[in-house]
Amino acid sequence: MSKSGKAVEAAPEPYGEVVARLEEMVAKLESGSLSLEESLKAFEEGIRLVRKGEKLLNEAEQRIEQLLVDEEGRDGVAPLAAGNRPALAAAPRAPAANKAPAEDDVPF
Description:
By secondary structure, this protein is mainly α.
């Protein structure tokens, strides 16, 4: 707590730093050089980092959704939802020349 009696809020950790710390934890665990107790502590820290990274990604996703609302208050695009991310649209394919439709392509 600060002298004014209010808790000092720490600035959010950048996502890149969270990922870098998580990669360090994974490397330590994979090295096999840690004791069981050290491995458990590293694993626990890794879980905290994963949760922190997910929180930062969710916050970024919410900010993006807010930016995609047009002037009239309508959604410009479908909102992003975890596990329901829109796939990139594939470029339309040109029909193959002189190719007969396969039996599976016949609608009846």
